[in-house]
Amino acid sequence: LARKMAEEKRRLVLYFDLNKTIVMKDSCNNLNEEKIIAKLIAIQAWGRTETKTTKSGEEQIVWVLAQDTLSKEPPQEVEDVINYWDFAHDQFPPKNEEEEENEEKRKEFNKAQRDLAMEKVMNLTQPGNPGTRFKKTFEKMLKCLELPKNARTVLGIADDEKPDEEGKQEAAPDMDTFQKDEANFRNLFRGGRYYLIPSFFKTLVGLKKAKREFAIVFRSYGAEIEGAVTEFNKLCEGAHPCFSGKGGTPLVKFDGSKGTKNLKIERNCKGVYYRHEEVEETRMVFGSLDKADPEEALEDFYGGALEEGDVHIVTGAMEIYMEIMEKLHEQGGFAIRDDWEYWHSNDENADSGKLLLVDQTDYGTQHIFFDDNIENEEHSIVDVRDLISGEKIPFKRCINKYLVRVDPYRAILEQDYFLKMIELCEMKRSEEIAKIEQGLSTEEESVHEPTLSEWELLMQCPSEDYLKRTVLPLVYQGLKIVDIERPNNPVGALAHYILKHKNDVRIPEPPPEEKEEIPEKEATEEKADGMASQRSMQSKENAQIIMKV
After folding, report:
1. Which of 339, 261, 251, 199 has the alpha carbon at shortest distance from 13?
2. What is the model's pTM?
3. CB proximity list for 108: less than 8 A, separation 6 or greater
4. pLDDT digits (tens, 9 = 90+) for 101-153
5. Helical axes 198-209 vs 417-437, angle rounded to 10°
6. How far apart are CA 420 and CA 411, in angstroms?
7. What is the distance of C-alpha 348 from the center of its chain?
8. What is the DSSP string of 30-96?
9. How is the beta sheet containing 59-65 ordered, strand by strand?
10. H-only helix segments in 63-176
């Protein structure tokens, strides 16, 4: 009970990556929402390659769908599978320096190859292609990113306005500062779509309703962080088109009024990381999101702003952490531009990514970093370090506790996705604290790679996919039989059909702790079978049977 009370009072510091985490655009690679969603589906669509002979006698490699549902992990029951994203890019391989010495020509060729692969990916769900069955999923995901009609009206977005294919439209040069800011803000929603996705806002509202103390920190390598800050601040001010109280929209504010905490990100709550191989030599420039070139001295780049006191430079992990936490205590919103040059120059290894400092002795604060680019010990864009020692915290002790590998597919479709993951992380942290208090070792967490079984993957998939893989195929078939036979008691007939054919649905084997409950469930189902065959199909009995199903 004491741990649960501590957990409920635990302060949350939530770090959000942008691209493919809470923003479904990628300006660096010119990917709009359609391309991002097509990529997400292609990565989770698994199939086999086959060689077919065309009418002209040429051999052609084709991709054949091997699993009817989307999943992050390949199906275990099918061998030699490849997702469609990798297949498409294998068809259009890039050239290396040996194949093309001229750098300009090589870049031009490789870009053309990527564009051809992307075109193939975009066509995956179109009629006549192997992923046609996922067309409705594509359309549903895109629909989830569309602004409600009343928000479009507030922004003055016409129903036929299309999203910009090439990138952000710039404000007219003859506008004054206010007009430019408003024009740039509106351009975040070009085509009538969200910039920050709905599940992010649902997280803020949910935490507010739960009266949780929390802080939000945006983390990104790119300049698109400015757009996220702009939209977030509009929300805090009560001026967001979806939460302004205008045109039938709800009013949501985080400006310090009426008991709310001020989460607005002011200039003093912005910073730029400059990493160093020694964590204690890492620097942060507070008061700006502009980044200096690696060769340029910080004092020269920020010279004027330093003299005027608009920015200041802090060196050392502990000093940086303390200042960030102090500012988050005062307000609650912060934006950090991370050091892409350092990460890239170190071969993008896990020890050089976005720095996350964690005080493991602070039981009252939980840091959670959401990023889609978190794979394993070797491939993680986030570098988690212990605040006191500066040592790296093993990945297996961080995942689903301090780190969340974001599934963009679920983040788009499930409004409460981030809230679910926060709950999981808090539970894992509570378990760790309990072990520490009992004097038990927490090192066993890092012994095995945290792989998920088919059962666990099924339990974690979105509601729609779960139902599609479990009961809906059987229900649909039962409905067809009922429609054909038109019995006097259709509900009873459907229940009887489901119970009779329940073993036709293949459910993955649950882990041992779940298996213990199976015999009791099977006994209940067998009893229900007997009831269905021995008793007359009266409505009361039908209800009992359906409840047991």
Report:
1. 261
2. 0.78
3. none
4. 999 999 999 999 999 999 999 999 999 999 999 999 999 999 999 999 888 88
5. 50
6. 11
7. 21
8. TB-HHHHHHHHHHHH-EEEEEEEE-TTS-EEEEEEE--SS--SSPPTTSSS-EEHHHHHHHHSPPP-
9. 59-65, 46-53, 82-83
10. 84-91, 103-122, 135-144, 149-155
